[in-house]
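Marked as duplicate of an earlier ticket. Keeping the data here for the record.
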Amino acid sequence: MPPDDERSNYLLVARTLLDRVDAGDVRRIRGELGGEQAAARYHDELEGVRLGLALQGIGPDGHTASLFPNAPALDERERRAVAAPHEDVERVTMTLPALSAAAKVVFLVIGESKAEASRKAFAEEPSPETPASLLRSSEGETIVLLDRAAAAQLDNSG
């Protein structure tokens, strides 16, 4: 999708963050090219790139990035970016290996609608049914920030 589409994650980030700071080395996914072509281009652009920070959210279904429950993209181990069609939108996502290589993976999760997904992602065994449970920094640090509502189903008795 084009970067000015109201459903574009890039538009959200541009409005709330990039338009307010010196973005420097931003590599935008060219969604307007279509999923497969945009993914191939982004894969090439990410060659040699290691993320310092992978800032992630979680959907109520447990997805993160555009890695959806039980989707084929979860099994990709060679490519850094793939097309990830979902519902009515042609998406492109970084793969688990590319995101996991980040020095820091930070999840920011807000709201009651994310409580079950947060429990599955952070308190249960990793599963393709909850893609966020599969993403952790492989050589760095994973940080999870939840508001009280999103953390409601986590056991805090310990």
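See parent ticket for discussion. The helical segments are 9-16, 35-45, 96-100, 115-122.
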